[in-house]
């Protein structure tokens, strides 16, 4: 006798375009779901750009506030929701960086290691990460944003280009210049 497994279909997550339509209609539950999906990536991006956790959180909150207020303006045929939100975050970060005039100093704490390395390995890794962050912070804002979106946020080139409001060719050029500048800084040149 064979046992047959009866499985009930798992309800699919609502598509982001549908959620945005519901947010535009004022549905708070749809907004909360989108906020839960996108806040971690927005915080990573804004924190890396602004290098100040409190400011990064403020910008991420402003992005979510704009998502709520401007949901009806979102066009899923023009961009993915994550791209649209990162474009808003980029402009808000750029405004703050311009007002600031210069970047804030890098916080000395490095990211925690995934595995439990030896104390010597952990110290070396923290020093390497701190050096990388210091060199990344010294790059022009646009180069830092391109590198962060492409490598840290793992956005595809077209999506990162859209977030920065660049055509794809200009984005690849900016990314190439950013990599070269970072490489030169790290090699001491």
Automatic annotation (TrEMBL):
Which residue intervals define the domain RNA polymerase sigma-70 region in the entry?
A: 34-101
> Record keywords: Coiled coil included?
no
Residue span(s) of domain RNA polymerase sigma factor 70 region 4 type: 131-182
- Record's keyword terms, sorted: DNA-binding, Sigma factor, Transcription, Transcription regulation
User: Does RNA-binding appear among the keywords?
Assistant: no
Check the record and name the InterPro entries matching this protein.
Answer: RNA_pol_sigma-70-like, RNA_pol_sigma-70_dom, RNA_pol_sigma70_r2, RNA_pol_sigma70_r4_t2
Q: What is the designated name of this protein?
A: Sigma-70 family RNA polymerase sigma factor
């Amino acid at each position: 006798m064979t046992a047959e497994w009866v499985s009930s279909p798992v309800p699919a997550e609502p598509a982001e375009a549908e959620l945005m339509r519901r947010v535009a209609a004022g549905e708070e539950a749809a907004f909360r779901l989108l906020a839960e999906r996108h806040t971690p990536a927005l915080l990573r991006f804004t924190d890396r750009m602004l290098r100040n956790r409190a400011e990064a959180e403020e910008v991420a909150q402003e992005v979510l506030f704009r998502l709520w207020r401007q949901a009806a303006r979102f066009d899923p045929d023009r961009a993915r929701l994550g791209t649209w939100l990162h474009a808003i975050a980029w402009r808000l970060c750029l405004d703050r960086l311009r007002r600031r005039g210069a970047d804030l100093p890098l916080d000395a704490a490095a990211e925690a290691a995934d595995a439990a390395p030896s104390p010597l390995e952990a110290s070396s890794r923290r020093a390497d990460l701190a050096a990388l962050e210091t060199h990344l912070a010294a790059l022009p804002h646009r180069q830092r944003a391109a590198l962060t979106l492409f490598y840290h946020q793992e956005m595809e080139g077209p999506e990162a280009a859209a977030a920065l409001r660049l055509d794809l060719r200009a984005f690849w050029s900016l990314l190439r210049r950013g990599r070269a500048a970072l490489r030169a800084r790290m090699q001491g040149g």
